[in-house]
Amino acid sequence: MTTGLIVLQPDDAWQVAMLHAAAFPDPWSAAAFRDLLSESTSLGLGLEQHGALAGFILIQTVVGEADILSVATRPDLRRTGIASRLLHALLARLGERGVARITLDVAEDNPGARRLYESFGFSVDGRRPGYYTSGRDVPVAAILMSKSLSL
């Protein structure tokens, strides 16, 4: 599999939105991604395979902290290491932005993602009951996780 890491730009918003729609039942619009990717406080990284976006990670930073807003891998490429590679690349770049802590929330019914974050040293901080509702008959909790980074 040939993949290349790219820094996502506002012009990539339509590709990001298409991948997000394939990965989640409640997709964000291309306009929302364009706005986020235009912000100096945001950073989006993508992995391309044969010229197409195979996965992405998007964060927003505020005063020494980063929050992972979304991570998605093309459904047919899940469990091939794309999300792991994106997370590794992201963590390597956060020091440049003065980030000392990174946070995220993940659906309680997504054990694969939870294992991924735990393998990178994220720990559970709490739980938001009923946070995720889209595409589910019964809402599920968000698991809040974080990781301290050494600068």
UniProtKB/TrEMBL annotation:
Acyltransferase recorded as keyword: yes
Primary location group: cytoplasm
PROSITE patterns, per the entry: GNAT
Domain N-acetyltransferase positions: 3-150
Keyword Lipid metabolism in record: no
Gene Ontology cellular-component annotations: cytoplasm
Pfam family, one: Acetyltransf_1
Compartments where located: Cytoplasm
Protein name from the UniProt record: [Ribosomal protein bS18]-alanine N-acetyltransferase
Provenance organism: Hyphomonas johnsonii MHS-2
Source species taxonomy: Bacteria, Pseudomonadati, Pseudomonadota, Alphaproteobacteria, Hyphomonadales
